[in-house]
């Protein structure tokens, strides 16, 4: 990139920051959004003029294709992260995790149920999750064990 373009972008960024600083605090969020949009448009114009825009398009297309192909993995990763917090993927050894007893609230969360659910609701939720998470059907044995433990915890306490 030529020094002239860098100087122009730097000047625009400095002017934008001074403009945002002069705006009242309650309107700065919208002004920052406008500044980011203008900066994005300026970058697109520069990439178009220099002939580098097709590379950005190819990168975006590749990212979209990868997301479509692996979106199920992203959903499972988000599910695991939400369900187990920071326990998964830590520096712990596989056998060093302490086994803890599930509380009723945790078991309800695992099965996606609410307080006051019936025995039939527990069994139905367990059956639906096991159809998705069972290791014989391409699922994860750890998650299946958690679902089984949640069912046992709830059925033990409900009877």
Automatic annotation (TrEMBL):
Boundaries of every J domain copy: 106-159
Keyword Transmembrane assigned: yes
SUPFAM superfamilies: Chaperone J-domain (SSF46565)
PROSITE patterns in UniProt: DNAJ_2
Keywords: Chaperone, Membrane, Transmembrane, Transmembrane helix
CC per GO annotation: membrane
Domain of life (superkingdom): Bacteria
UniProt family annotation: Belongs to the TIM14 family.
Name of this protein: J domain-containing protein
């Amino acid at each position: 990139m030529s020094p002239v373009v860098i100087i122009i972008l730097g000047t625009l960024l400095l002017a934008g920051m001074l403009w945002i600083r002069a705006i009242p605090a309650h309107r700065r969020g919208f002004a920052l959004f406008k500044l980011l949009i203008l900066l994005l448009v300026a970058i697109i114009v520069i990439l178009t003029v220099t002939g580098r825009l097709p590379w950005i398009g190819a990168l975006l297309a590749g990212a979209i294709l990868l997301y479509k192909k692996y979106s199920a993995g992203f959903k499972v990763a988000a599910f695991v992260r939400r369900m187990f917090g920071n326990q998964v993927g830590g520096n712990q050894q596989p056998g060093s995790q302490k086994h803890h007893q599930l509380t009723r609230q945790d078991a309800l969360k695992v099965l996606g149920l609410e307080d006051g659910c019936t025995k039939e609701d527990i069994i139905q939720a367990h059956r639906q999750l096991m159809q998705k998470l069972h290791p014989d059907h391409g699922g994860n044995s750890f998650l299946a064990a958690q679902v089984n433990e949640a069912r046992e915890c709830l059925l033990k306490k409900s009877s």
